[in-house]
Amino acid sequence: MNDVSLPDALATLKFGSVAEQDPDSQRVRVRLPELGQLLTAWLPVLSRKTLKDKDYWLPDIGEQVAVLLDARGEDGVVLGAIYSEQDAVPVKSAEKWQRRFGDGAVLEYDRQQNQLTVSGGVKHVVVDTQADVLIKAASSVTIDGGQTVTVKAGSKVSIKAPATEISGTLTVQGAITGQGGLAVSGGGGATVSGSVEVSGDVKASGKSLVGHNHMGAHGPTSPPL
């Protein structure tokens, strides 16, 4: 077994605040109060993965971080940010995972309630993918658009359900094709502006348009031609 000589002083753990950022390389310089406000060299920020999968997260200026420095204090790595009295923890629950952003947006998962929540300052949610997207729920799916919900498709939109209910007015700008019949009740009935062409019979209050007769001077007339 080869002898390995170790330096007199090993790596040390220090705490400080981020003074400068280098977004291109995910490195920062840290001010260390314990060492007379010493400003470190550019130190990489520890990431979970950097090869095939990549994780990018840069501490903010002034953020409290833990730094591991070599024996001479010339090189090291930023292990991550830490909470303090000034920057208190936002959640006090061992059952929750949360990521809170500076604009107020919040991602949270509560494993006790089995609930994933996206809330706060999120103004736009974009899912841009070339794959199929499947939303599958055990009971119900609710979409609350506030003002407008727009669905766009290159060919068609299919709704497969035993019944479809629309509470409110329905405006169709294209043709309507029905294959299972049409029933209208309540309200003001049905109004059609324009021509109506029917291949079968039309009945009003039980009277057939095709087979009805009128009473003439000499008796009932023949059905309309």
TrEMBL record:
Region (Disordered): 206-225
InterPro entries: Gp5/Vgr_OB, GpV/Gp45, Vgr_OB-fold_dom_sf
Organism: Chromobacterium amazonense
Domain Gp5/Type VI secretion system Vgr protein OB-fold: 18-83
Protein's UniProt name: Phage baseplate assembly protein V
Gene3D superfamilies xref list: 6.20.150.10, Gp5 N-terminal domain
Coiled coil: none
